Amino acid sequence: MKFKFTLLITLLSIIGFAQDLASLKSESQKMLDYSISLDFEKMMDFTYPKVFDIASKDQMLEMMTNMFENDQMSIKLEKIDPKFSFGEIKKIDKQVFCKFSHNNKMKLSFKTDIAGSEEMIVDMLKENTGASDVTYDDKTKSFYATLRVDVLAVADDSTKNIWKFITLEKDKAMLSMLLSEDIIKQLGLN
């Protein structure tokens, strides 16, 4: 009897994990699809809500809109195989976390003449985005950058226990404003 009970508990925990991972995969794909379509308002629905304590949704929306389309350039994300890679789902106190990564392909088109600056822009894109592959297409006058993006998924009371996302930047400045140093350390993000 004890063996059957232990087996049942083990199976339930595996099923529970699979459901969490399944929902994480589903929500991650939705977030990525909205990113590719540049539906910034829908993207905000997938953003960890404490981000909006730093900058309001309206400010974030304006910033993203201006970043992706302005007088100097336009940025589009292209649909590619994201090759999601999910880490371990970790529960810390009343929060659940999972770090994952995915591929992104960005098309950057300048609206001004950049003749002679192509190589410098390729180098700048590699350095600033961490892109492993940056090319320039003279026909379209566009740069294409393929990069790996690291994301932290969080489910807690503030998200109604639904996965929400924080893009992990190199400097981790925003992360330290959203999570305690102890949690950052436990997640190995320091």
From TrEMBL:
Keywords: Signal
Signal sequence extent: 1-18
Protein name: DUF4252 domain-containing protein
Provenance organism: Flavobacterium nakdongensis
Taxonomic lineage from the root: Bacteria, Pseudomonadati, Bacteroidota, Flavobacteriia, Flavobacteriales
